[in-house]
Amino acid sequence: MYAKKKIEKEIEPFWASLYFEKGILHPYTHKVERRLSDMVGIFNDYATVESMLDRGENPLIYEVYEITIQPLAEGHLSFATTTLHPGKIGKEYYMTKGHFHAGAESAELYVGFRGEGIILLLTRGGKIMNLSFKAGRAIYVPPNWAHRTVNTSKKDLVFMTAHPSSAVHDYRTIEKKGFPKIVVEQKGRPVLIENPRYRRR
């Protein structure tokens, strides 16, 4: 999570390389790996998750490469690249955990580099949307919209995100409630269906 605080530290301009094919931001200063064991309760098919983990199967779902030298404060911008791998848990496609921004003023920009998928969006009031996401597409997520990325292709979904450094990532709300829709494979194609485990309150 990012704390909203005002820091007077100044930094100089800097550059970083974007490796579109591999989804790596270089030189990154922080890497996050999300495996199945980090996402217990996120996927809808709890039985399959438990069975896989009991067998010692703990696949890597996605990786995030960040640069963290800028202060986590108002006026600064944080950016990262994510590689969301292909795969399914049961019939549900691999996805990110998903989060709200606790700071009402915090929007986020997504830019697709490789692969295809869907971004699920949800307001705290219950309005839902989904947007197709692919290489060359930029998606603007306004403040007060939760967002989750789903990989519906057979190769890595690689993208970059950017948001205010003061943003606070609220993962817990989505962990408790989920999203109203989930993306599953039916007859070889991705389909959005109602999430039977979604909690409206």
Can you lay out the helices and strands and say which pair or pack?
Blueprint: E1 17-19, E2 24-26, E3 30-35, H1 46-54, E4 60-66, E5 77-84, E6 88-89, E7 92-93, E8 100-101, E9 108-114, E10 116-123, E11 128-134, E12 138-141, E13 145-151, E14 157-164, E15 169-170, H2 172-177, E16 181-186, E17 189-194
Antiparallel strand pairs: 1-2, 3-4, 4-5, 5-14, 6-7, 8-15, 9-12, 9-14, 10-11, 10-13, 16-17
Describe the fold and architecture.
The radius of gyration is 17 Å and the shape is globular. It has 201 residues and is mainly β. The protein has a 6-stranded antiparallel β-sheet, with no helix packed on it. A hairpin with a 4-residue loop joins strand 1 and strand 2 (24-26). Helix content is 7%, strand content 44%. The chain contains 2 helices and 17 strands. It has one domain: Sandwich (Jelly Rolls).
Give the total of domains: 1
Q: What's the β-strand tally?
A: 17
Supply the CATH superfamily name: Jelly Rolls
Instruction: Provide the spatial order of strands within the biggest beta sheet.
Output: 3-4-5-14-9-12
Please summarize the sheet with the most strands. Answer: 6 strands, antiparallel
CATH architectural group = Sandwich
The shape, in one word, is globular
Count of DSSP helices? 2
State the CATH class.
Answer: Mainly Beta
Structural class by SSE content: mainly beta
What do we call the CATH topology?
Jelly Rolls
* Helix content percent band: under 10%
